[in-house]
Amino acid sequence: MSIEQNIQRINSELPAHVTLVAVSKTKPVSDLMEAYHAGQHVFGENYVQELVEKEHQMPKDIKWHFIGHLQSRKVKLIAPFVSLIHGVDSFKLLQEINKQAEKNNRVIDCLLQIFIAEEESKFGLDEQELFEIIQSDAFQQLNNIRIVGFMGMATFTENKTQIEKEFKQLKSLFDQYKQLNEQPKSTSNFQLETLSMGMSGDYLLAISCGSTMVRIGSSIFGFRN
Ligand SMILES: *Cc1c(COP(=O)(O)O)cnc(C)c1O
């Protein structure tokens, strides 16, 4: 199937409230343009240099999401244009994003990455770390970032029950924190709307567990080397 057909097929499966992020890491600009012409205007990239180069070459109405592990010293390279940063997993990184956003006169939307997998290797905040960040005074003073949701990656396994358990756990945490938004004291830089979970192998399961944003690479562009 072509990239265009893959996008049409996936779109036909997604409920209207779910956003498709086309994960284009390692793929050439020609592939991305094929997706763009099929109507796909949201792309996710994992590597800063690659993202910067592609942003340069592609149409300006694309929304670029950074979905990889972001190093603080590289934030300044994407701060002028990035539309959403998915994998924020420390307060230090959040401070740097805020600083670079301010320099660019903008507010950058971010998702906090929450650790839900069993593997040690996956990045993310645990519930205690999340709580400490959100309730701190220092966080409430960051005026150039906005936490618009959470992102999570399930354990790399064939065991659907395990994956489902992890997605549901993240959804329940999301709902719990979303309630905080409705309280008078909640700050304007913390407005949960988006729950980013689900990739090529598990996006339908993720949606059934409450995902509102899926990050799909290989099912659109084919396997990566
Ligand atoms: C690569 C990647 C994806 C897409 O993975 P596929 O299995 O190819 O759909 C999604 N999310 C993150 C964080 C990734 O690094």
Uncertain residue ranges: none
What best-fitting shape do the alpha-carbon axes yield? globular
Number of strands: 8
Bound molecules: pyridoxal-5'-phosphate
Q: Strand count, sense and closure of the main sheet?
A: 8 strands, parallel
Strand content: 15-25%
What structural category arises from helix and sheet content? alpha/beta
Q: Report Rg.
A: 17 Å
Mean pLDDT, as a whole number? 95
Number of helices: 10
Q: What is the string of SSEs from the N terminus onward?
A: HEHEHEHEHEHHEHEHEH
Helix fraction, binned, reads: 40-55%
Give the CA-CA distance, first to last residue: 19 Å
Question: How would you write the strand order of the largest sheet?
Answer: 7-6-5-4-3-2-1-8
Helices and strands in order:
Elements: H1 3-13, E1 19-23, H2 29-37, E2 42-45, H3 48-57, E3 63-66, H4 75-78, E4 84-88, H5 91-103, E5 108-113, H6 127-135, H7 137-140, E6 145-151, H8 160-181, E7 190-196, H9 203-208, E8 213-216, H10 218-221
Parallel strand pairs: 1-2, 1-8, 2-3, 3-4, 4-5, 5-6, 6-7
Bound molecules: pyridoxal-5'-phosphate.
Keywords:
8-stranded parallel sheet, 19% strand, binds pyridoxal-5'-phosphate, 41% helix, 225 residues
